[in-house]
Amino acid sequence: MKKTIRIPAKINLYLDVTDKMPSGYHELETVMQSIDIFDIVTLRAVKGSGRISVFAKEGKQRADFALPQPRNTAYRAAELFAAAYPDALSKDGVRMADCDFEIELIKNIPSEAGLGGASADAAAVLTILSDMFDAGTDENELIALGAKIGADVPFCIRRGTVLARGIGEKMTDTLQNPTLHLLIAKPYGENISTPLAFAEIDARGLCRKSGDINAFVSSMERGDFKAAAKLSLNKFESTLPAASKVFAIKEAMLSCGAHMAQMSGSGSAVFGIFADTASFRRAEEAVKKMAQVYPCHTLARDASLDYEEICL
Questions:
Q1: Catalytic: 3?
Q2: Confidence band, pLDDT 50/70/90 cuts, at residue 65
Q3: Is residue 19's pLDDT more than 80?
């Protein structure tokens, strides 16, 4: 059995870290948005004894490399699903416990960029296994499993545009804006570890509510990007060194006519929202010496994940 899907990256239109729980997890308020940069995830299930292996391809040569298995999010997703539903049967009548799983990731979403690439891969594995095996899982059950892997995994299962609270698992669909056109810029030489970014939030005593997410959502719903830009925030920008290219990229995008420019997630990628092609092209030219650029647009929740369909 084999299935391939494409799974989208995300940006955080708004991101506040409001508290730290006794468990060590952080409470968030965020507006998350799917965008059309995709990892391609293939899962093969063959008769075996539950062995899981993960390989990835990235870069122009698409060179294969093995990933650290137990720490990899795709591995953990397969492990959690198999442990939860060992007796689930495939369409061929094979028990999940009697299968080996081979997972291949084609990595197009930049890593350590705040775009949710690792979370998207975990979400893809859970989605494929739910389709491949008759475990009777619904979206809420997949989201509960995903929350055990990482804060962004529940959203990557749900997709679209959501207002999320808690550790990211309490989601409400929001914003019915038309498609937004974006420029993503990942600064050269700036990779940010999410655990280290949260540690810096803690060290600086920044775990407190800092903005008004409801006012931000209302301004976005009205299409009032000027107001939204004033209300938007990303708490992780407060942890960056003053010399970070993130600030220069934001300034360049705004000076070229972006409605709004902000770092996504824990960084280091920056997104800009543009209304016209001319300002977009100016910004692309202005930042390409500082960053790898990715033209893209927002995606609705019902955007197809079918890789074969898209390739036709």
A1: no
A2: low
A3: yes
**CATH: 3.40.50.2000, 3.30.750.24, 3.90.550.10, 3.30.70.890. Which one for 181-297?**
3.30.70.890
Write out pLDDT tens, residues 174-226: 987 778 999 999 999 999 988 899 999 999 999 999 999 999 999 999 989 99
Q: Residues near 143 by Cβ (< 8 Å), separated by ≥ 6?
A: 154, 157, 158, 169, 171
Cβ distance 44 to 89 under 8 Å? no
Residue 47 a catalytic site member: no
pLDDT (tens digit per residue) in 234-268: 999 999 999 999 999 999 999 999 999 999 999 99
Q: Which of 10, 107, 186, 245 is catalytic?
A: 10
Catalytic residue, from 152, 235, 245, 250: name it: 152
- Least confident range from 6-10, 126-130, 167-171: namely 167-171
DSSP 192: -
Q: Would you state the structure tokens that stand for residue 39, as one six-digit string? A: 């990892």
| CATH 3.30.230.10 applies to domain 2-174 | yes
Nearest C-alpha neighbor of 173 from the set 186, 187, 162: 162
Q: For the chain, give every domain's residue range.
A: 2-174, 181-297
- Cα angle at 264 between 258 and 266, to 5 degrees? 150
Long-range contacts, stretch 44-47, CB < 8 angstroms, 24+ apart: 44/1, 44/2, 44/101, 44/102, 44/103, 44/104, 45/1, 45/2, 45/90, 45/94, 45/99, 45/100, 45/101, 45/132, 46/1, 46/99, 46/100, 46/102, 47/94, 47/98, 47/99, 47/100
- Our measurement of the distance from residue 73's CA atom to the centroid of its chain's CA atoms, rounded to an integer in Å, reads 12
Name the DSSP letter for residue 222.
Answer: T
Neighbouring-strand partners of residue 164: 30, 171
